[in-house]
Amino acid sequence: MLVLHFIIAILVGYLLGSIPSGLIIGRYAGVDVRRTGSGKTGATNVLRSAGWKAGLIVATADALKGAIPVLLVQHALGVNVNPTAAGWMAACAGLAAIAGHNYPLYVGFKGGRGVATTGGMALALALPPTLLALLFFIIPIVVTRYVSLGSMIGATTLPFLYLAYAKATQPGHALTGLNLAYFMALLIAAIAIDVSHHDNVQRILNGTERKLGERAQPLPAK
C-alpha cells in the first residue's frame, strides 16, 4: 500500500506539473512563447513575450503546480503513514511536479526551468525559510535586473536556509526523517535550476543576458 501511495504521489505530481500554463496563457495573449525569447514556457519568458499580467498569472499557476501535489500528499495520501514516509512522499510529489513542468508530457517534453514550480513546492514544504529565500531571489534581481541570477541565488540558498531553520526549531533532528526528505527535495530542485540556467550564466559573463523589462525577440524560424 505504501508503494502504491508513492506511485500515486509521483504520477499526480508529474501530471499536474505537465500542465503547460505558460503555453496556454501565452496563446490566450496571442503569443507562442516557444517561438520567442528563450523558447521556454516559464513565467519569465511569458513576461517578456506577453507582458507582466500574463507573466504574473503564469507564475501563480506554475507555483500552484508545485504546491498542490505536496498539499495533497500532506493532507490525504500521507495522513495514515508514518511522518518520515509521508515526508518522502511529499518530497517526491513536489519533485515530480518540477519534472513535469520542465519536461511536460502534453507538449513534447519541452517546458520551463522550474523556478516558480520549485517555489510552490518549497512554500508547501517549508514556509518560513522559503519566505526568507525570497529575499535572496528578489535582491539580486533589483540590483542587477537579471531574473536568472536571482533564480539561481534564491534556489541555491533555500535548502541551506531550511537546514538552519530545522536546526533552530528541532535541535538534533535537522537531517533526519522528514527534515532530510525536505532538505533533499530542495537541494535537488536547486541543482536542477542551476544546471538549467547554464546558458544564462554564459550570457551574463558575456554581457548579453536579457534584463528585466526587456521584451523577448522572436526566435529564428527553423
Poorly predicted ranges: none
Biggest pleated sheet: none
Number of E-state strands: 0
Order of helices and strands: HHHHHHHHHH
Tally of helical segments: 10
Mean pLDDT: 95
Task: Summarize the structure in words.
This protein is an all-alpha fold. The chain has one domain (2-206). The chain has helices spanning 2-17, 21-28, 43-50, 52-77, 83-102, 115-125, 127-144, 147-169, 177-196, 198-206. Helix 2 runs parallel beside helix 3, helix 2 (21-28) packs antiparallel against helix 4 and helix 8 (147-169) packs antiparallel against helix 9 (177-196). It is globular, with a radius of gyration of 17 Å. The chain starts with a helix and ends in a 16-residue tail after the last helix. The model has no long low-confidence stretch (mean pLDDT 95).
SSE layout and pairing:
Layout: H1 2-17, H2 21-28, H3 43-50, H4 52-77, H5 83-102, H6 115-125, H7 127-144, H8 147-169, H9 177-196, H10 198-206
Brief overview, please?
This protein has 222 residues and is an all-alpha fold.
Summary keywords:
222 residues, mainly alpha
